[in-house]
């Protein structure tokens, strides 16, 4: 079954990208106009994040989101067979020399990303690294078939995928052996209740967030960056490399996580339709967290880093 699906996906991906965008426009009509895929979640997220915006403004962002989301699907399919020349042209990294200098100086690097613009194409970072290893953390999909397909696609351009459960051990072993890495973390997902160590104010919400990237960055004492991604036009992305810190040693607890969410929020506010609004980001509240744990348990969780 894997090879059958692989062959179908590969053949479909061979279509020119302009044809993929025609299919994306058709998919928009199906997903948004006909099926109304997760429109309740999208509208709830948008209205609570932007209470100052009019109904017309929210509707414009909503439509823009579904157009971009369908493009993201088409671009992810196309990535399956894209050439190195194509991906270099369509996914650029401004300021990448900062990362290469850190790797040359035997520094490991943490890169924060969000579900913003096309995070799949960021896997081409490995093509731009002149020293060290490019890697990204991932959570295995429930479907083993699609998990293998996505791993194939994400590792086509010299990037290694690391299971998030094994991340610290793998990265620590690599550093110990002299293998220096630049590792990407998509850190805007919803954490489990026992992992709610920090709650920044994000998009008008009291928001529980993952702090695993900061914990690993502190233990391995990495340099830390954020990729501020823009979409100048359809099918083209530019990731601007923003350094958060050279070292984590002298920074207060959660300072890196806080800075990441400030930077991500600024990216979203600039072009809100390019974030994954269909994700039920605020489904877990502080009230539920407080009801689930005793005061002593809450203190222990919140003080963990």
Question: Could you explain the architecture of this structure?
Answer:
The chain has 305 residues and is of the alpha/beta class. The chain is built from 12 helices and 9 strands. The protein has helices at 2-13, 17-34, 39-49, 55-78, 84-90, 96-104, 144-154, 167-176, 212-220, 255-270, 286-292, 295-302, and strands at residues 91-94, 109-113, 133-138, 159-163, 181-186, 201-202, 205-206, 223-233, 236-245. Helix 2 packs across helix 4. The longest helix is centred in the N-terminal third of the chain and has 24 residues, at 55-78. The protein is globular and about 50 Å long.
Q: Which structural class do you get from the secondary structure elements?
A: alpha/beta
Order of strands, widest sheet? 1-9-8-2-5-3-4
> Oligomeric state of the chains?
single chain
- Kindly provide the radius of gyration, computed on alpha-carbon positions and rounded to a whole number of angstroms: 20 Å
Question: How does the overall form come out from the CA principal axes?
Answer: globular
How many strands in all?
Answer: 9
| Distance from first to last alpha carbon | 43 Å
Low-confidence runs: none
Helical segment count: 12
Task: Give me a quick take on this structure.
Helices cover 47% and strands 17% of the residues.
What layout of secondary structure does this protein have?
Blueprint: H1 2-13, H2 17-34, H3 39-49, H4 55-78, H5 84-90, E1 91-94, H6 96-104, E2 109-113, E3 133-138, H7 144-154, E4 159-163, H8 167-176, E5 181-186, E6 201-202, E7 205-206, H9 212-220, E8 223-233, E9 236-245, H10 255-270, H11 286-292, H12 295-302
Parallel strand pairs: 1-9, 2-5, 2-8, 3-4, 3-5
Antiparallel strand pairs: 6-7, 8-9
Helix pairs in contact: 2-4
């Amino acid at each position: 079954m894997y090879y059958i699906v692989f062959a179908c996906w590969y053949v479909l991906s061979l279509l020119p990208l302009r044809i993929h965008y025609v299919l994306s426009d058709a998919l928009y009509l199906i997903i948004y106009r006909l099926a109304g895929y997760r429109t309740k979640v999208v509208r709830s997220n948008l209205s609570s994040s932007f209470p100052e915006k009019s109904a017309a403004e929210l509707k414009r962002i909503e439509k823009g989101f579904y157009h971009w989301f369908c493009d993201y699907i088409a671009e992810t399919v196309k990535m399956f067979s894209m050439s190195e020349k194509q991906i270099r042209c369509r996914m650029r990294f401004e300021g990448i020399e900062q990362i290469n200098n850190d790797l040359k100086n035997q520094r490991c690097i943490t890169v924060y990303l969000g579900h913003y613009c096309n995070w799949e194409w960021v896997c081409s970072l490995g093509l731009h690294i002149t020293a060290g290893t490019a890697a990204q953390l991932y959570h295995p999909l429930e479907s083993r078939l699609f998990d293998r397909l996505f791993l194939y696609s994400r590792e086509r351009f010299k990037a290694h995928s690391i299971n998030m459960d094994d991340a610290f051990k793998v990265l620590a072993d690599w550093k110990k052996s002299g293998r220096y890495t630049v590792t990407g973390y998509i850190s805007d997902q919803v954490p489990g209740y026992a992992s709610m160590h920090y709650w920044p104010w994000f998009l008008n919400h009291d928001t529980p967030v993952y702090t695993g990237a900061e914990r690993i960055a502190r233990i391995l004492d990495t340099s830390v960056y954020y990729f501020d991604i823009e979409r100048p036009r359809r099918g083209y992305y530019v990731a601007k490399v923003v350094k958060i810190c050279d070292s984590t040693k002298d920074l207060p607890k959660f300072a890196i996580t806080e800075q990441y969410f400030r930077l991500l929020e600024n990216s979203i506010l600039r072009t809100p339709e390019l974030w994954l609004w269909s994700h039920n980001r605020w489904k877990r509240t502080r009230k539920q967290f407080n009801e689930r744990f005793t005061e002593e348990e809450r203190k222990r969780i919140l003080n963990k880093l």
